[in-house]
């Protein structure tokens, strides 16, 4: 027997049992096991078990005799010389290891002698015999029992006995849960989970077992095992993805990643969000349409650890590294870490607003309004999303805007060598590009001093072939010196005088030379020009590839690869490579869909629908003098300057407060849309603050603002801000996000009883929602204002360019469509009253603390403590919770809080009532905002309303939106709404509370009702 040279001592040790396996295969079938037992004692069972790959390969050589193949595998898994031994191990095999196999998968698969045995037993009709043999095996210990139960469950699956497989799965879960073995010794449960996680009848027990294994994934994050665990997790968590027409996944597969058996890359898309759920190594989601001209790419990229979204544009990618700097790279490699020259970028908890602007050969990238990168990029027509090994990169609401041009042709060599990746490891240095030709030039070096060893060199272009088209290039040919051959993935088409020879590049684990055939009988001899340039044309239509050389059609082939990267190949130990003038004409779409029609764009928010019907009410061009009969410009210690670009305003840098504002003298009723374009915004606030706002006042003096602000310690932010003017005090609230934009637009929209604040960056038409507030009162005279202000040590300067106000036409219906939907959908709920007669024995309540049943309802009493009622069942889907409040009795100095809470952090919604000084009530709607420094959630007030009396509190969830509603003596009021997700509401997390800080307080609840779409 001949063996190839193995350089690694570890590989040499592992190869020794292969001799044993090959010699022992015939003996095992003859019942002679003494040599096998001896080898097991010499090398140890752990070494023998690692040769499962070889055992499967030997068994497959017996495929013409299923009975012999079955007996061989039985003797491998149940060695006759050790009746208590059961070998259940696995390995990861590269997909399509031979030219004869179908190449529909790029990534590796889990294989095992145990899985192979079950397949062979089924073909040989020996499943019953195998089940009997295993059942008779004694349970030496928990490890042996775990292996036995897992294999029995797999056999029952193969027999179609899912009930029995499910019971065995439950038993396996008990054994798995109490095992302390490391992940590398968990092959029995890994094989069961791998085989069962997509079987509907076994999915639950498979998920339970996987939950035990998942925490161990961190011990092997970048290994094939860790990546396959990620793949199983993805299949359990995510259903079928939306089918994307213009975005296509690809993996930067190399010889090492394929040889290690890394899984196939998978991406999941839903509702404008896309994430890589299974990683092969470095993965991409390529946009099919090439881009040129002036355009922008805008998106929200995830900052959640291990889910960082990364966008590849202009030939490079970048990501924010914990706010302190950038990681940057290209298709070929990572360039490194580049710290910010100024302060770190404040980061939100979840998503970052990303914007890249391409103008000619320059690309500028902004994150949360700050310019973080500017560079010249040369030629780079492709856009993609990038995902690092083991990551779950997530991007949402990606839109391509501006004036992109779709080129008919692209030039892959013009992008440079960094857009090509060597398939063989550590071989990138062999390839280089030069500017020796207008359309690009690439070279491959000869590999010296390798003796008679054949050294292959294959490099792939990063963007796969996704459609029909034609790829043409020129290669230099000189016999024995220069050659170049086209490739699709690992399939090479070698060109010589005899014709075209299909040739497969092998992976290292195959341990045999690459395979080539003689020139295909379908190929004609090639007339290659010696010591000259020759032209190749590849024409692809569907799965058909046509190869022409020097204008003559020479060969046709049917492609069976799913991923189809274009490659260039030469034998580096025999020749060099020179290729130039590569031109790719593809059948890609000739234009882009409108931004909101693009596949990764989120749906247009409902509050933006129908704004085109509004009529222009006011337009101020700040490059011209302001009409002071229409607008007031009072100032308090401020300066203004006219300029060609607009009106520059600067509050004076003096102690105290200074401001400048422009106010519209006209009253605005109904719906409106006000947009202010600004530029050259600068500011600072060492100890004070500086604000630039677009705001309005209602007729009660309450203020609602879209603001761009500066705070102490260099903080810059954009905010939805409001100031509530009650009868006795002011309440100031703000929802804010980090923002460092220097130009853009502030926007306020009122639809029905809700106001929305937004901001857009630069010249983008993409607005980001800052927050919402409920308001019904008309805008007062002088109510709509632009204001620049500073306090203490704050400084601010900004140029106003244009203000446009549009309003609803007379007689239009002034209601937010989401509020209309609230009443329409709740009427369609199937009614379910959970409290009819308030029987104290009802099981609907998990808790009743300081609460008692009366004839008129439930009485709750609190005296320096809290009373509570908790609902005991779970809720899912859409629902409405209504609480009618009856008699409320308070002592003179009582300080109390009444609350209706639903859900758990971070998706908890709260309605609270507290007393006012004038005996009225203040109602507050709250949702979680973010975690503070102590990692506790802080609530944001959505709205605060004063009412003389409150009769009803309501919380309504429609899909992902929670509505906050209260009712006074006569009418209901929608306080606001927010996205809290679709998570099920667990039992006990719906609570009604009464808390008293002083004397006794009591109230009676006349009715508690739940209406649910999914009772």
TrEMBL record:
**Residue stretches making up the DUF1583 domain:** 454-590, 597-807, 813-1001
Keyword Ligase among record annotations: no
Q: Where are the transmembrane segments?
A: none
Task: Supply the alphabetized keyword list.
Answer: Signal
Extent of the signal sequence? 1-28
Q: Does the keyword Signal apply?
A: yes
Pinpoint the DUF1581 domain residues: 355-427
Q: What is this protein called?
A: Protein containing DUF1581
Upper lineage is: Bacteria, Pseudomonadati, Planctomycetota, Planctomycetia, Pirellulales
């Amino acid at each position: 027997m001949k063996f190839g040279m193995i350089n690694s001592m570890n590989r040499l040790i592992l190869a020794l049992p292969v001799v044993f396996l090959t010699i022992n295969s015939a003996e095992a079938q003859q019942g002679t096991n003494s040599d096998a037992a001896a080898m097991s004692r010499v090398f140890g069972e752990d070494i023998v078990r690692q040769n499962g790959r070889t055992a499967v390969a030997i068994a497959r050589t017996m495929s013409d005799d299923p009975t012999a193949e079955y007996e061989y595998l039985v003797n491998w898994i149940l060695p006759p010389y050790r009746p208590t031994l059961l070998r259940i191990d696995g390995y990861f095999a590269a997909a399509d290891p031979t030219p004869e196999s179908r190449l529909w998968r790029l990534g590796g698969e889990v294989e095992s002698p145990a899985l192979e045995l079950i397949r062979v037993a089924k073909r040989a009709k020996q499943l019953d015999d195998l089940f009997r043999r295993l059942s008779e095996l004694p349970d030496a210990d928990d490890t042996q029992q775990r292996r036995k139960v897992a294999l029995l469950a797999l056999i029952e699956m193969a027999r179609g006995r899912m009930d029995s497989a499910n019971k065995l799965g439950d038993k396996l879960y008990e054994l798995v849960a109490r095992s302390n073995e490391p992940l590398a010794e968990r092959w029995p449960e890994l094989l069961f989970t791998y085989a069962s996680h997509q079987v509907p009848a076994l999915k639950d027990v498979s998920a339970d077992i996987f939950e035990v294994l998942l925490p161990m994934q961190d011990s092997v994050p970048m290994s094939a095992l860790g990546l396959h665990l990620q793949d199983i997790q993805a299949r359990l968590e995510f259903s079928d993805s939306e089918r994307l027409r213009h975005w296509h996944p690809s993996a930067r597969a190399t010889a090492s990643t394929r040889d290690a058996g890394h899984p196939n890359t998978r991406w999941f898309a839903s509702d404008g969000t896309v994430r890589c759920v299974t990683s092969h190594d470095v993965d991409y989601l390529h946009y099919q349409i090439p881009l040129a001209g002036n355009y922008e790419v805008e998106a929200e990229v995830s900052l959640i650890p291990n889910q960082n979204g990364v966008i590849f544009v202009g030939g490079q990618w970048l990501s924010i590294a914990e706010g302190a700097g950038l990681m940057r790279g290209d298709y070929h490699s990572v360039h490194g870490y580049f710290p910010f020259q100024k302060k770190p970028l404040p980061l939100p908890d979840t998503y970052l607003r990303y914007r890249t602007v391409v103008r000619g050969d320059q690309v500028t990238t902004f994150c949360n309004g700050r310019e973080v990168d500017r560079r010249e990029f040369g030629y780079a027509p492709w856009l993609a999303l990038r995902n690092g090994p083991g990551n779950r990169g997530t991007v949402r609401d990606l839109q391509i805007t501006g004036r992109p041009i779709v080129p008919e042709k692209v030039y892959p060599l013009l992008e440079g060598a960094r857009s090509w990746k060597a398939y063989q490891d550590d071989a990138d240095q062999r390839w280089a590009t030069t500017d020796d030709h207008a359309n690009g030039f690439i070279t491959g070096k000869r590999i010296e001093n390798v003796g008679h060893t054949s050294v292959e060199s294959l490099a792939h272009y990063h963007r796969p072939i996704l459609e029909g088209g034609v790829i043409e290039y020129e290669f230099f040919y000189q016999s024995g010196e220069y050659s170049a051959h086209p490739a699709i993935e690992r399939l090479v088409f070698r060109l010589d005088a005899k014709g075209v020879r299909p040739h497969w590049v092998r992976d290292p684990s195959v341990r045999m030379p690459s395979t080539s055939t003689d020139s295909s009988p379908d190929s004609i001899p090639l007339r290659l020009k010696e010591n000259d340039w020759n032209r190749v044309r590849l024409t692809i239509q569907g799965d058909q590839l046509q190869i022409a050389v020097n204008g003559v059609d020479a060969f046709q082939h049917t492609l069976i690869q799913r991923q189809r990267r274009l490659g260039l190949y030469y034998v580096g130990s025999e020749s060099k490579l020179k290729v130039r003038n590569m031109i790719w004409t593809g059948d890609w779409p000739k234009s882009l869909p409108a931004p909101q029609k693009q596949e990764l764009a989120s749906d247009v928010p409902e509050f933006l629908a129908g704004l085109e019907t509004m009529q222009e009410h006011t337009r101020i061009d700040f490059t011209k003098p302001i009409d002071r009969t229409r607008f007031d410009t009072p100032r308090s210690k401020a300066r203004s300057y006219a300029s060609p670009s607009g009106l520059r305003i600067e509050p004076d840098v003096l102690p105290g407060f200074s401001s400048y504002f422009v106010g519209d003298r006209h009253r605005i009723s109904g719906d409106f849309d006000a947009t202010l374009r600004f530029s050259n915004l600068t500011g600072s606030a060492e100890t004070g603050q500086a604000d630039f706002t677009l705001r309005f006042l209602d007729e009660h003096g309450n203020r609602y603002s879209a603001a761009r602000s500066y705070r102490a310690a260099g903080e810059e932010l954009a905010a939805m801000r409001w100031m509530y003017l009650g009868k006795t005090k002011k309440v100031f609230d703000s929802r804010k996000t980090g923002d460092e934009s220097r130009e853009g637009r502030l926007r306020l929209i009122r639809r029905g009883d809700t106001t929305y604040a937004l901001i857009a960056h630069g010249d983008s038409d993409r607005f980001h929602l800052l927050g919402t507030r409920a308001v019904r009162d008309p805008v007062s005279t002088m109510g709509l204002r632009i204001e620049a202000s500073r306090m203490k040590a704050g400084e601010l300067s900004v140029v106003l360019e244009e203000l446009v106000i549009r309003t609803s036409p007379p007689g239009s219906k002034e209601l937010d469509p989401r509020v209309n939907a609230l009443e329409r959908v709740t009427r369609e709920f199937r009614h379910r009253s959970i409290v009819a007669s308030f029987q104290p024995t009802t099981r609907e309540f998990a808790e009743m603390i300081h609460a008692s049943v009366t004839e008129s309802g439930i009485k709750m009493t609190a005296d320096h403590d809290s009373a509570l009622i908790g609902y005991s069942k779970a809720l899912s889907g859409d629902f409405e919770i209504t609480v009618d409040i009856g008699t409320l009795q308070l002592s003179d100095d009582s300080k109390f809080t009444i609350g209706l809470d639903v859900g758990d952090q971070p998706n908890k919604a709260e309605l609270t009532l507290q007393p006012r000084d004038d005996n009225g009530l203040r109602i507050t709607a709250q949702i979680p905002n973010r975690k503070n420094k102590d990692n506790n959630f802080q609530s944001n007030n959505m709205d605060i309303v004063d009412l003389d009396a409150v009769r009803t509190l309501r919380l309504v969830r429609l899909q992902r939106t929670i509505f906050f509603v209260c009712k006074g003596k006569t009418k209901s009021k929608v306080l606001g709404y927010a996205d809290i997700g679709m998570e099920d509401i667990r039992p006990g997390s719906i609570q009604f509370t009464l808390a008293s800080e002083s004397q006794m307080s009591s109230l009676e609840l006349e009715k508690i009702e739940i209406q649910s779409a999914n009772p």
